[in-house]
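tool=predict chain=A
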Amino acid sequence: MAEQPFHPPPASGAVTPDFFLCDIATALPKDDMASMEHPVFSLSTRPDRRVLDYAHGTTRIKITPSVKGLATIHDKDILIYCISQLVAALNAGRDVSKRLELVAHDLLKSTRRETGGDSYRRLVEAFERLAGTRITTNIVTGDVETTTGFGLIESWQVTRRTRSGRMVSVSVTLSDWLYRAILSRSVLSLSPDYFALRKPLERRVYEIARKHCGRQASWRVSMTVLHRKSGSASPLRVFRKMIRDMEAAAALPDYELSVAPGDLVLVRPRMDVIEADGPTLPPEAMDAARAAAPGLDIYALEADWRRYWAASGKPRLRSPAKAFVAYCAKRAS
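tool=predict ok
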């Protein structure tokens, strides 16, 4: 599939409270679509101080680390937890804010981490990398190109500790970019078993599969493109071996991989995947939608269309593909 521009969704004019308390125990894991599409997070288990420069079309993304290194794919658990809490609150009609108050123990449990003292220290290190990693990207709208820079989170602070010094409550302020993505529901659900994946590349490939395959019967991608989209620093020959090992292990939730002739990777959803967010769209529907709404983020439009379909009483569609393409054409007009 063609890659979509990496840009923040339109800002919301809604008045928000000073902070949002993360207290929804049943929140389902959610991830923002932009960072699922693009290799924003490091897959290294050691401090990664590379400056990453990623390009697709005329759009460029530059990711600059702090002295602590780039934010890692495991650090992203914090953002997934925050996104999940805010989306669940929005679905429940609650007021939200880009500043969140969360209980560290709840965050660790929700992301399937240990809750010993060392886990709290690693959590602090993750906050530091998230706050220090900076993203700069150019956005082309018509003939106007705008360059903008932002952090993965604006700030964080420990608001309460135990007598022994262990962190209890934390305040996190999300970037405007991520907060606008949440308000516009430019997010996708993840399997709760995502947090059980310990290998960074497994997590990244799952994200890519979830973003691009979704509910389709299958999705094909060349090994070279998958290597680039993953953000892996390994040589292509090593990456190819890791994908074959992943195929053999069959550890990804929801999806199975197979290496096909022509140095292609085939992704298929597992038979037991339960999708509750709307009709199935074939790959050709996405191509037709791009033609109907040039320049717009098709994945964001898909999410909007599914919400519209659900709000309309989940009617039975004779042709979901035609309905989706018509919706995109109307949004582009």
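The radius of gyration is 20 Å. The chain is about 35% helix and 20% strand.
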